[in-house]
Amino acid sequence: MLGLMQDWPLLVHRVLDHAATYAGDKEIVTRSIEGPVRRTTWGGIHNRSLRLAKALTKRGVKPGDRLATLAWNTERHLEAWYGITGAGGVYHTLNPRLFPEQLVYIANHAEDRMIFVDLTFVPILEKLQDQLKTVETYVILTDAAHMPQTGLRNAVAYEDLLTEADDDFDWLTLDENAACGLCYTSGTTGNPKGVLYSHRSNVLHAMAALQADVLALSNADTVLPIVPMFHANAWSLAFSVPMTGAKMVMPGQKLDGESVYNLLEGEQITMSAAVPTVWLMLLQHMEANNLKLSTLKRVAIGGSACPPVMIQKFEQVYGVEVMHAWGMTELSPIGTIGSLLARDRKKPFDEQLKIKSKQGRPLFTVEMKILDDDGKELPRDGKTFGHLVVRGPAIAKGYFKGEGGQILDEDGFFDTGDVATLDPDGYMQITDRAKDVIKSGGEWISSIDIENIAVGHPAVAVAAVIGVAHPKWDERPLLVVQLKPGASATKEDLLAYLDGKIAKWWMPDDVAFVEAVPINATGKIQKLSLRETFKNHVLPTAGRAA
Ligand code: AMP
Questions:
Q1: Of 57, 62, 112, 505, whose CB count within 10 A is highest?
Q2: Cβ(40) to ligand 1 under 6 A?
Q3: Nearest CA, atom 4, ligand 1
């Protein structure tokens, strides 16, 4: 027997309707690419998204068409997402930090019909447009006054496009399972693969993200999404914030410490989200200038492991709660978040810090377990490492156009490619990407654990640990260090700093200093490239049975 409840498809534009109806005058602030700060409201975003959807429909956009964006976080980018999806299209986020040939591959693979592009990235597309075979129109996210001289095909200023229609438009009625957004994972090997979100997965994920033990957003918040819309679906914020009708501040292109600090204070932000490298710049700026934070209450930090020293500074020096999150593009993207169980909140700070440095507990809608190499489930004892697999309604079941083939196991679980432990309380801790794991004498060493401790040394800016061939142990850890500008430290200093903080047999066999640790387009350390650089590195222990 079926239930007797209404059939109300979960469509993302319903979220925007809600924000406009119940928080229509709540502000959306943008630090614009042109320079000045622009202010609009949820009502304004709604109105302009309707006009955009109508203009796109008049220009022949059909349900399922992919329309790309190559843009910073701005109110226009937000309108583009809603306008595109409201016309039945699929917003496809292009990551400007990718190599040009990757952008070409991705836009061609997606068969993008239009690209909405910020002024910053027009020169990139001008160089590539001959190879972008399917793109008919380039929408420059600006007004006529700032329109550049450009050879881009059928270039139109975004504000001019909006004048082609009024807001008398009904969002397309779609199946909630219809495609809504497309985001390619960078993939260190092979071609990038497209994760195709549906309206339903985006709405469900945003609702899950709002839970009090997850992002805990409310109408009383002012949210600064620093995490870019072009990476990992902006951690749901483009949908979860309007569900609450909170004020939202879009940072545009300036993400350095000073610019972020000025926005945090100037717009009285209460919650923000970004990868550790952004927070590192902010903390350095605040420390160098002896600044404090007056309104910020919570920050979500994820994308790569958040070092304990960062959590400690935010919480103890600045009074800001850290929510350490783990996720991936394929998970829409949030998988776990470090909100503490009631009993852990009563523990002393040092113990809390240990728990908060883990990646957190799964939110409802994410099922999680760890498996051995043969696919057998491993114990949730907080010690055993295994392949982390996940299942849920906002988790990919395949990549766009079937790339990568079957990606679920027979029980419907997706292998995240991460290696992790799960403890009896449900806290998950990532030890490595499976392909980065260091195997020493048959045992696994967690590079992330060592890196987290090494960045606590005052001279260290970035630390990366990789496995290097060893005649006796197969592999042993090498610590690669980028020092802070002007700082100095020796191999002996760093090893002495680690001594006692990690198991003896995890101690790196050597330390190498580099000018810059290579970082990829989504802010992660490029271990592959480091392994290549150090593939002939001879460890001092290699000559003896270390
Ligand atoms: P992406 O799809 O680009 O967001 O990359 C997802 C990957 O980033 C995950 O599979 C993890 O390897 C890594 N990652 C994300 N968040 C964290 C975190 N908090 N700690 C460690 N690794 C993380």
A1: 112
A2: no
A3: 328
